[in-house]
Amino acid sequence: xxxxxxxxxxxxxxxxxxxxxxxxxxxxxxxxxxxxxxxxxxxxxxxxxxxxxxxxxxxxxxxxxxxxxxxxxxxxxxxxxxxxxxxxxxxxxxxxxxxxxxxxxxxxxxxxxxxxxxxxxxxxxxxxxxxxxxxxxxxxxxxxxxxxxxxxxxxxxxxxxx
Length: 162
Fold this sequence. Notes:
Layout: E1 9-12, H1 16-28, E2 35-38, H2 41-49, E3 65-68, H3 77-86, E4 95-99, H4 104-112, E5 117-120, H5 125-142, E6 153-154, E7 159-160
Parallel strand pairs: 1-2, 1-3, 3-4, 4-5
Antiparallel strand pairs: 6-7
């Protein structure tokens, strides 16, 4: 088993196939972190700001890190990333970009916005499995993430509860 059940992960991914592959790898590696998924940028912002369908914080806890696809319907991942990194209450959440885009401009924009990592989705299924395995081992077994059960963003008072 890897991860911690007090460290939620927000996956912002519109592809059902990619999300299902990630879930399979998580089950295989026995990941214990709660996983929340948003399928577009607008839904992700609602989740992070506890608006829309996510007004109850227990249904949208502060994530320990965010896995973000760039090419999303509606508000795209680049805009979501910029908004997260400009917000005093959200900017410390590590964001890992996981996308098909190998465009140097996207890579530059993301690192300028302080993305923690930029990973290009492999097309080959075996390489995708390897990438997911490495990603999960690094972020859930090696890296020390903040324990979000100790506090975090509270949208009712707009300051961290530390």
